[in-house]
Design brief:
about 110 residues; mainly alpha
C-alpha cells in the first residue's frame, strides 16, 4: 500500500500549488491524503452529481461521448450511497479505497 503522504508529495510535485500558478489539485490532494471531505464542502458531492448529470444529459442529446464523466458520475453516485452526499466531492476517494479492497479512511459524517 502506498501511503497517502507519498501520494500527496507526488501530486504536489506534478501539480504546483494554486498560489504558484498551478491548478487547485494540490489542495484537493491534501484533503484526500487527510481523508478530509468534511463540511463545509468546497464542492458538495450532491451538487456535483446534479451538475454532472446535467452535463451527461446534454452530451447524450448531442451524441457526444464523455467516458471520463461517466466514470466520475458512477463514483459520485457510489459515494452518495455511502453517505457522503453533503461532503466535499473529493470523498470519491472513499469509493476508490473500497473498490481497491482497502479499509475506509474514515466513516461518513452523520
Amino acid at each position: 500500500e502506498v501511503s497517502p503522504e507519498l501520494m500527496l508529495q507526488l501530486c504536489q510535485l506534478l501539480f504546483p500549488a494554486h498560489d504558484k500558478g498551478g491548478l487547485p489539485v494540490s489542495a484537493y490532494a491534501a484533503r484526500v491524503a487527510r481523508a478530509d471531505w468534511s463540511e463545509p464542502a468546497g464542492a458538495q458531492l450532491d451538487i456535483g452529481v446534479k451538475d454532472l448529470g446535467l452535463a451527461r444529459q446534454l452530451a447524450d442529446q448531442s451524441r457526444t461521448p464523455l467516458p471520463l464523466a461517466d466514470l466520475l458520475y458512477q463514483r459520485l453516485l457510489a459515494a452518495q450511497r455511502m453517505g457522503y452526499g453533503s461532503a466535499d466531492w473529493c470523498a470519491v476517494a472513499a469509493v476508490a479505497r473500497q473498490q481497491a479492497g482497502l479499509p475506509p479512511a474514515r466513516p461518513p459524517a452523520p
